[in-house]
Task: structure prediction
Amino acid sequence: MIARILEIARLYLFTMYQSRSMLLFGFVLPLLFTFVVGQAIVGFEPADGQQSWSLAVVNADVGDLGQQLIERLNDDPSLAAVATEESEAVRQVEREEVAAALFIPADFSSRMLAGENLDLGFQMNLAEPISAQVVEQVVLAALSEVNSWLTIADSAVEIASQIGLFDTSIGVGQAEYFDDAVIAGQEALQEMPPVVVESRQGVREAESQGGIPSGVGQTSPGMLVIFTMFTVLGGAAGLLREREEGTLRRLLVMPMNKITILAGNMLGMFVVSVTQTLILILGAVYLFGTDWGNELVALAIMILVYGFSITGLAILIASLVRSYAQLDALSAIIVIPMAGIGGAMWPIEIVPPFMQQLSLFVPTGWAMRGFHDIITRGLGVESILLEAGVLLLTGAVFMLIGLWRFRYE
Amino acid sequence: MTEAILQAQGLHKKFDEVYAVKGVSFDIKAGEIFSLLGPNGAGKTTTISMLSCLLTPTEGDAKVDGFSVTGEANQVKQAIGVVPQEIALYPTISAKENLQFWGRMYGLRGKHLQERVDATLDIAGLADRADGKVETFSGGMKRRINIAVGLLHNPKILFMDEPTVGIDPQSRRRILDTVQELNKLGLAVLNTTHYMEEAQELSDRIGIIDNGELIATGTLDELIKMVGEYDTVRLCLDVDGQKIEDVIEPLKSLPEVKQVSPGEDCVMIQVPDSENILGDMVGRVTQAGAHIRSLEIQEPNLEAVFLHLTGRALRD
Result:
């Protein structure tokens, strides 16, 4: 049985790679699309040294802390905080020219100094929710830092007061002491932050923006997910053509089990998908400099389980359609929406939340999540186990239904 | 007495509520060529599919080389070679690669496989085209490779389903010669066809099948004896559908006429001595207002047998 399965798989691979259309549609076109589309969506990506996000700031504060907050925001290289009028800030948000707008009230300094609660106005650009959330985090961090300066200064004044510094005849005024303590606190925090938190969720800057894949970092996994699915579905269509042309019927009169025939073809499809994926990854790495990360074991697992999953899907679809022509015509109708929903055509992070939820129902969605964990987020085996498990399980279910339902004649 | 290599007993096959094959029973002796003759849709391919273990009989069973088609499929498949009606080959690889692949599917390996591939290429007369891609072959050459695949594992009986459909006379001649040569080497053959001449020339025995039923079996002589000494006169008329019915009754009224069977624009008439009543028949047809386009007298043959048994012409 094994020898016959291998022989059927060998014939499948031989006839598949013999075809010039495989070279064109399997390798040339996906690499071309990886590059061209990658250039088109490189706009997600900040150019070196430039700010990624713009923040309109309306500073109505009568004190100094509002201005200090703006300066602190501009210390972040990924943010451009620009002071403007209220109406202009609202207009910029509405026209999606900035990620968000920050409104600093007139009593900002006095309430901060008094240690009172206060509300800052923050208007998000809803077209870029992820960017706005990142900007909001930067604003909160800056506010926290300003608050830390004041806390340091308060503590210094309180200690000085306890040791009677302001009661002596040295002439030290409490207000001047507080201002000096604020400046000292700023310098101290800049030189030696009290706690450094290094986030492992961080961004691979070269090919993403705030965790959103862009450029060839998006199109390389995207195109391989799309085109390997096309190839494997083409293989399933070939199986139906064999049924129509009689070679499948002839195989059935050979002394072997029916399952052997499908197993051989599925092995062929799986090997084709894996080799195609490897070649597309190597092509993207060496031709376009795509960074596929350093987690080779995780990558190998994802390649294998994705190949398994789409092989199962192909057999399932082949068992449901009537003819080769029907599957041939349906391929694009199946693959393109699945690619769109799964985030293979654009980053899933930029679509509305319900679409992101929808991506959990297609293998392309899990495949893209796994690949981006490796490429964009630089994560390893432990992080892709869920994606790999889902793909393995769905592939097995698809395959079992396909084997059960497939009509040999 | 020669032992039967194939014995079919009461084979039935029902699709939905329709019987495609109804109670077919026959046997084939070792080294015998047996043809199933019948029009398209008669049940020939369904019968051969049951014997090849592709379809499970609704009722009945068959034994090939002593193994049951319903319970010992793998042993049956090892004993039979099947040549399907369609060209079941991979067109983009060579004839030799096709044979090597199919040989491996039969479990052949190594030197033995190579010997069988070479031998079957010789039988097909295509040793010099072994490395040519099948898609570049003519229809006849493809048919010959199609047959060669069925011979790779030295089967005890070869099933051929309409092996000469759609090919030129020269290729047909070559295929029939090949089958006869293989038969001389002891290979039993089950051949299905709707070509009367092919069955007549090739077969040791013939089974006539119509509407799923095997209505007669025997040698050519035995079958022709069923018709007696009747000639068949085939009259083709320049008339419309209404008038061809008009000539039936006048012809039937002639006392010598045994049977009149209308076709689309021809009438088949069975008479004991056609030459003596030819004038009367022509007169009756002319009187009925019909114009005779052609007239053909056939000696007793399988066409006449089929007509005799079914009331219809085989070619209709």
About this structure: The interface with chain A takes residues 52-54, 74-75, 77-78, 80, 82, 84-90, 92-93, 101-102, 104-107, 149 of chain B (CB under 8 Å). The mean pLDDT of chain B is 88.
